[in-house]
Amino acid sequence: MQPVDRHFIDTLTNWSGQPPRARGQGVSAPELQDLFDAQVSSRHVDFAARELQQQGRAFYTIGSAGHEANAAVAMALRPSDPALLHYRSGAFYVARAMQGPGSTPVEDLLASLMSSTKDPISGGRHKVIGHPKLTILPQTSTIASHLPRAVGMAFTIDRRVVETPWPEDAVVVASIGDASLNHSTALGALNAAGYLTHQGAPVPLLTVCEDNGIGISVPTPKGWTARALQHLTGVEYFFADGHDAQELLATASAAADFVRTSRRPAVLHLKTVRFMGHAGSDVELAYRSNAEIQADYDADPLLATARSLVDLGVATPQMILQRYEEIRSHVETASKAPVEHLRTAAEVMTPLKPLPVEPPATLLATSELRSQAFNDRLPESAGPMTLAMAINATLTDLMAAHSGVLVFGEDVARKGGVYGVTRGLRARFGGRRVFDTLLDEQTVLGTALGAAVCGALPIPEIQYLAYLHNAEDQLRGEAATLRFFSNGQYENGMVVRIPGLAYQRGFGGHFHNDNSLAVLRDIPRLVVGVPACAADAPGMVRTMASLALSEGRVCVLVEPIALYHSRDLHDADGAWLAEYSPTEKIPLGGVGHYPAANSDQPHNQDTLIVTFGNGLPMSLRARDRAAALGILVDVIDLRWLTPLPIDGLIAHSTGRARVIIADETRRSGGVAESVVAALVDHGFGGSITRLNSKDSIIPLGPAANTVLLDEDTIFEAIMDRQENVT
After folding, report:
1. 686: how many CB neighbours lie within 10 A of its CB?
2. DSSP character for 522?
3. pLDDT, mean of residues 108-114
4. What is the pLDDT of residues 284-308, one digit of tens each?
5. Contact 226/239 with Cβ under 8 angstroms?
6. What are the angstrom distances between the C-alpha of 634 and each of 45, 154, 613, 726?
7. What 8-state DSSP symbol labels residue 521?
8. Which residues pair with 559 in a beta bridge?
9. Which of 360-374, 534-548, 660-674 has the lowest mean pLDDT?
10. What is the Cα–Cα distance from 46 to 302, expressed in whole angstroms?
11. CA distances from 234 to 155, 189, 520 (A)
């Protein structure tokens, strides 16, 4: 028996409290009883988790013991209020489940920690607290990385640009621990909520900071959490002590009511304790004295609720103990049920279903809406376009076709983007759909995550590729995991636009010339595409938008800045311009083929260059230089970097004597490594030459050219083959 379990029983057995007194104003017996049942159910599940782990039947022991005051928050809200919960929220889950008939919260929590396929949210993939029927979205965050999404959801609910799954007066609730409050993600999200409130935007977000005074083994300085929370600009502060059941219920209700009626953000500072250490493997005595641990027992929230039940004459100590043991018995019985686990990789990866063979239907507005959006000047009649112009026209088409498309980011609205790619969109579609954000990439992506789960199609912009890296966990840890850990029951499809890559004539150094894509390419189910020209961009953007809507895909469009306004391949030839097509889509796996110049046999050249992005015009110019010498070379543009278009790659490389990979990313962790592996895996028998930029930070000015792949290097690689043959 756990010491906290024994302490509760001994305290109730030897009860020496005051005789029953008049019931407090506003406190109902059923409310106190429901609070107690939820708290006790969660506590006994935590006890069971430790026992089941010893039996080899459970795999997660970070529990909620000591945090059960959060049940009062669930009781103050509605089951239709979306919740993104800290991992110590077992009592919240039980209390919310009790508000609807037919729920089995104890069985659900046990299934989750035992990795059972009966887990209603993850299907056995992880211990996450969630249930679609209870409007609880699964979170695995331990560092508050779910808070930006929560802000995005609250922002979108009241923006009224799309019909969300939640009621119009819904409140978004998110919970974190006191140690997580110090994380940049939490600070950024809470700052964003206050920033929006300062601007007059509704943000119905209730953030619950469950303050147990310790982060794993590191104590939180006394008074720090209250001081930090009380000084948040634009965020209302509430405090409740989990050791006072009546204050707890009243304050939780007041906080929820404030957010619901004012549509402003609030934080509920909830004082808690932590029992049984951080997790089952944690030896708490290694960093806390026995006296400190024992002192927390008197602040047990279960004892607080029990005292209220006795003090107000709702129940006797004996009745409370009886109920305590009844719930223990129920949990023990439920824990003995047979468990089925995921057994194959295919079962585990079911939520990461394969991409469709054929692209989804085209998103295209009616002729009338298109004419209105383009001011009667349709882009297909406007003549050849640059890459930037083609992307702008495609975004306009998408926004005309789907009212839920939102375009936002830093400088994208009034200014129209640093490079003019979003110019005119705000004037056409209004500030509710095209808006500037604060300069925080975590907030940009979090807004997209929240908007997507609300039913919108967000198209956020990260201003430069280098700026992604301080917020990349929003894609890796949040966006990419939602479908997996919800077993396909929640999705957040979006198209993230990122101007990036190098070759801007030395401008900006590494912040504006970042050539690293490795951080994006190993995220399961993420789609990454790089359009090199105006001919490809509309079809790729349209495919991504369709995948985001129909498949819940998170797509990243990396736009080569150096090619935005390019018009020519060679001097004044206009070859890098293209006519606009409003319906064409380029499916995943569709590579661009550029046959050898002046060739009568365009599909049977000795050498094939495989490239993408800025590498395409460099490779084509190198191809044409070789052709002038009678050397014929084919070029293919991968276009899609994740998933790599392996079928197209193999089809075009089969029968070749040589493949040259012209990859503008760094040699270590570059795209070429995957291309080489694909060729080898499929038995390519010819020679392979890999050309990359150097493993270097990109410097400012002309020195940038010393570390980047260039046209001459590609041409020399072509000629090297010829010299060796000669």
Report:
1. 15
2. T
3. 96
4. 889 999 898 999 999 999 999 999 9
5. yes
6. 64, 52, 16, 20
7. H
8. 499
9. 360-374
10. 14
11. 14, 12, 35
Q: Are strands 633-637 and 607-611 parallel, antiparallel or unpaired?
A: parallel
pLDDT in tens, 228-259: 999 999 999 999 999 999 999 999 999 999 99
- Of the CA atoms within 13 Å of residue 197, those in its CB half-sphere come to 22
Strand 214-215 with 218-219, pairing: antiparallel
- DSSP state for residue 598 in the 8-state scheme: T
C-alpha to C-alpha distances, 617 to 14, 389, 532, 562, nearest whole angstrom = 83, 18, 8, 11
Q: Residue 586 in contact with residue 543, Cβ under 8 Å?
A: yes
Q: Of 476, 473, 478, 468, nearest to 500 (Cα)?
A: 468
Q: Report the 3 state secondary structure along 566-584.
A: CCCCCCCCCCCCECCCCCC
Kind of pairing between the strands at 434-436 and 405-409: parallel
Q: Find, among 106, 131, 32, the residue nearest to 72 by Cα.
A: 32
Return phi, psi of residue 71, to 5°.
-60, -35
- The amino acid present at 386, given as its one-letter code, is T
Dig out the tokens for 596 from the structure.
Answer: 């050898």
- Match 């506003």 to its residue by tokens: 26
Tracing tokens 């039947």 back to the chain, one arrives at: 57
Cα–Cα distance measured from residue 298 to residue 8, given in angstroms and rounded to the nearest whole number: 9
Phi, psi of 176 (to 5 degrees): -140, 170
Residue count of the chain:
726
Place of tokens 């979006």: 494
